[in-house]
Design a protein that fits this description.
The protein has 15 helices and 14 strands. It is of the alpha/beta class. It has a single domain, classed as Amidase signature (AS) enzymes. Strands 1, 2, 3, 4, 7, 8, 9, 10, 11, 12, 13 and 14 form a twelve-stranded mixed beta sheet that branches. A hairpin with a 2-residue loop joins strand 13 and strand 14. It is globular. It starts with a strand and ends with a helix. It holds the Pfam family Amidase. It comes from Sediminicoccus rosea. InterPro entries: Amidase, Amidase_dom, AS_sf. This is Amidase.
Length: 473
């Protein structure tokens, strides 16, 4: 069946057409292997979109078109010789400007790093180059990833935000400029812009992808992951990073195999109604209810809190997820943010950044221990329930992208790019999560979020492939 489209009465309508699917790299690669298409031609198609739309969307902080053409030509030669480096060889990729890319500016929309040029590749970029990835440029981020919004606009309605700190990566893929971009998430920065831009976002388990070379925010919750035009593209990108750069912090890396997991119907999926449930508009709530009905009709059992005391208790615990996650993030972010402020002066950081880091600087070790204990309780509850289900389901955002997301530089500016209430839980849990573009609300994409236990990435992606297939008509 097609994606579910619904609207709120009298709401402004965006320009998202779910019938017009993004061209993914998996499909283009079939042409490379058959000799009917080339990586250079694919790159040029994306560059034509950039030329036509970048002035409005403003997804990129830096473009290296000449370097990308050289890399695409090299990939074209390898396909002609029958020797591609990997299933990702020749794929144009954009990198979020929190990750180092050798020879490119790394400014993070901040005066602190103005003029800085990266001298080394981040671990994931090094891995993607080794796989034949065509690194096209760096995407826009908020100031130091946590402050004032970047100039990026939603590709389906320029009056709306493209999301949180991975908004540039999300918009680049959503607009059809590249089939894959790399984002990162500490609170909600990858899944939410995937929802807003109608793409597939994959936040693998914490530690499954090497985060070395990323500007850290909160090491115990920092993740990187692909934002892609298809689920297959997302999996292959994550796999190549893990296979070539390994996991991080003693983690062995992504589970599964190089081939995208085959679709598998789940027996039981647990529905989570978190604090974000109260934020939903009528159309988003109804659309998600219809998604659940489709899943049940196809044979997947939906477990709800009404019939499960443990699930009800988990939902109660998750009511505090935003606060707990923010406490952990801002305490751990005291370095480097406090160090930047000490080195460059308060005036070098915007008001939105200063307001957020002030929260962490005011916390005590006892405050942090309390937040960690609360996170541990949530992880334990999820682990107990997760052993009896094939995944958890909720929304990837509390509706379509809000309008006027480019807020002024003021305290709380980061909240103007959308709520993180549906996202905080799985950033804390550290398990895999995906945003699947299954809903259309008021002419804008809204993602459905599928979540799993840590290091069950391949199993969760198999369920995601089954769900995605149900709505591929």
């Amino acid at each position: 069946m097609p994606r579910i489209a619904i609207r709120n009465a009298d709401a402004p309508q965006g320009g998202y057409d779910p019938a017009s699917r993004l061209a993914d790299f998996e499909g283009a690669r079939a042409g490379f292997l058959a000799g009917t298409d080339t990586p250079r031609a694919l790159l040029e198609r994306g560059l034509a979109v950039i030329a036509a739309r970048e002035g409005e969307v403003q997804a990129f902080a830096h473009l290296d078109i000449a370097g990308a053409r050289v890399a695409a030509d090299a990939a074209t030669g390898r396909y002609r010789a029958g020797r591609p480096l990997s299933a990702l060889d020749g794929c144009p990729i954009a990198i979020k400007d929190t990750l180092a890319v050798r020879g490119m500016p790394g400014e993070m929309n901040s005066a602190v790093f103005r003029g800085h040029v990266d001298t080394l590749d981040a671990a994931c970029v090094m891995a993607l180059r080794a796989a034949g990835g065509v690194i096209l440029g760096k995407t826009q981020v908020p100031e130091l990833t946590i402050g004032r919004a970047p100039p990026t606009r939603n590709p389906f309605d320029a009056t709306r935000t493209a999301g949180a700190s991975s908004s540039g990566s999300g918009a680049a893929v959503g607009a059809g400029m590249v089939p894959v971009a790399i984002g990162n998430q500490t609170g909600g920065s990858l899944i939410r812009p995937s929802s807003f831009n109608g793409i597939y976002g994959f936040k693998p388990s914490w530690g499954a992808l090497n985060v070395a070379g990323m500007h850290a925010i909160a090491p115990s919750q920092d993740h990187i992951g692909p934002m892609a035009a298809s689920l297959a593209d997302a999996w292959r990108t994550a796999w190549e990073i893990s296979a070539r750069a390994g996991g991080h912090n003693g983690h062995p890396g992504l589970t599964g195999t190089a081939e995208p997991p085959r679709a598998l119907r789940p027996r039981r999926i647990a529905l989570l109604r978190t604090r974000g449930w109260a934020e939903l508009d009528d159309a988003t709530r109804e659309g998600f209810t219809r998604v659940l009905a489709v899943l049940e009709q196809a044979g997947a059992g939906i477990v709800e809190a009404g019939g499960d005391g443990a699930l009800a208790e988990l939902e109660r615990l998750l009511l505090e997820a935003d606060r707990i996650s923010n406490d952990i993030i801002m305490y751990e972010a005291r370095w480097p943010y406090g160090a930047w402020m000490a080195a460059h002066g308060e005036g070098a950081l915007g008001e939105a950044v200063r307001a957020r880091i002030a929260h962490g600087l005011a916390m005590t070790p006892a405050d942090y221990r309390r937040a960690l204990a609360e996170r541990d309780a949530i992880r334990a509850a999820i682990g107990a329930i997760g052993a009896g289900v094939d995944g958890f389901i909720t929304l990837a955002s509390s509706g379509p992208a809000p309008q006027d997301g480019a807020a002024a530089d003021q305290a709380g500016a980061h909240m103007k790019t959308g709520s993180r209430s549906f996202l905080s839980p799985w950033s804390m849990v550290g398990g895999p999560s995906l945003s699947l573009p299954l809903l259309v609300v008021d002419g804008m994409p809204v993602g459905v979020q599928l979540m799993g236990l840590p290091d069950r990435d391949a199993a969760l992606c198999a369920v995601a492939a089954w769900m995605d297939g149900l709505f591929s008509g």
